[in-house]
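protien #1 (seq + structre)
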Amino acid sequence: MTRRLIVATLASLLSLLPGSFLLSAQNPREVVGRFERAYRSAKTLQAHFFQSYFENGREVRSEAGVAYFGRPGKMRWEYQSPEPNLYIIDGKWAWFYVPADHTVTRIRAKESSDWRTPLALLAGEMKVSRICARLEIARGQQPVQADGVVLSCQLRGSEPSPSAAGNAQALGTNVLFEVNRDTGELSRILVTDPGGVQVEFRFANWKFDARMDAASFRFAPPRGVAIVDGELK
């Protein structure tokens, strides 16, 4: 009877613990495995997104719209507020079109340093290891969703070099992404650059194998729109 009482008491206490404590014991590989499986089989994806920019912890700008993903490695971000903008990766080029400016910036997708570029993974081979040099459960990070797990990813190519030890600018770019622990669906991404600037993407209403025309992932500059080649960073 005493043993049963102890077990019941422990179960009750565990049910009261915050989700982040219980999830910290999870193997990040298991969580990533669910994430990869959730998106690997879909040929197209669609989701609503809300994008926020932060400086010194203060939100300075926010945008919202609908994002589309198509294999292999194609994306279309339709910004609807506060003003219409369009960001497309057609598999070779990345295009950023601002109708109000009558210009479109073009850069080779492989050379783009835009924060959205790694998300082409969702419409690619769907291997998180291709963009994350190191991956672990993000300790002390409270998930936004009750059933979320927050993972910390050190982007490949952003690892600090031994010769730059102690340099704040050599900390690399760290990405936190939150996925549903049961379904593997992506709900949030938070990117922090070495300068401390942050951009957060929140996703909702995912649609798998959404019906899309292949032309949606191509950009044809409207007449009178100037094409500007982006600078390499």
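ok now protien #2
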Amino acid sequence: MGYQKLLLEFEDRLDKLENGEGDILYKAETGKKLVEKYLLELRSKIVGVKFCSKKDEIYFFKHVKPQIYSKLIYYGKIFEIESKRPRGTHEHQIKYFSKQIERYNSFFTYHIEFYNYYRRGAMAMDEKYFVRGNYDLTLTVASYQFVTDKEFSTCHDATVATIMAYDMLIVYLKQVITELKNTIEPPKSESMDSQSKMFWTGTKTDLIELLYALQANKSINSGTMDVKDLAEQFERCFNVDLGNYYRTFIELRSRKTGRTKFLDRLIQVLEERMDAVED
């Protein structure tokens, strides 16, 4: 349907925003406007167009649209949370952010049946959940967007987007809490004299792709090191702040094509280097 180029452009713009200058409120506000723009463009490509098959329609509303719509929810909530951040002690702020995590976790509990369905990758109900025009009063629905925009919504694509957004929000909030706790009680770490002299000069997305690949392949500590600890080691080793690495991984995983662009490029340049070696 011609939306792949739009998605790639969207991902590139968002990556530049996340890795660029500006505080969290600026990025949240700018990100929200950017998502709204691309969501409207995506809608224009879908409304009035018939999918080739129900399978294609299900894929779009289960994976593609939520990938963008989740960012709209994410940035909106980030702006709301950060603009209301209390100015009290770090302990007070930690309590505030912890309550936010409880709030978003409660959404998963309330929608536990669909949450489990989505998490385990089930497909039996996909035709009810992700095909336009299907409305069942017995289904628990998290959003009534499908009532107001039937041509661009199904009864559960917004629920998937909300799950994705809240996943990202919880990771963000936990990172903020960790930073606040470390300020109260600085972590035991290497001295400044032993700081790594290596600097990562690629994009953060590239390093995160490599990080998850190494962890999945059990190349470090036989795979016993979790992603969080591995990310901290990468940050120290390469003097880089990976930010919300789990959110980035979710974005990589959601891509229909080019999910391993960095690893594919590594293979290409290494083979070129091998071919260029003189006899």
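Residues 1-188 form one domain.
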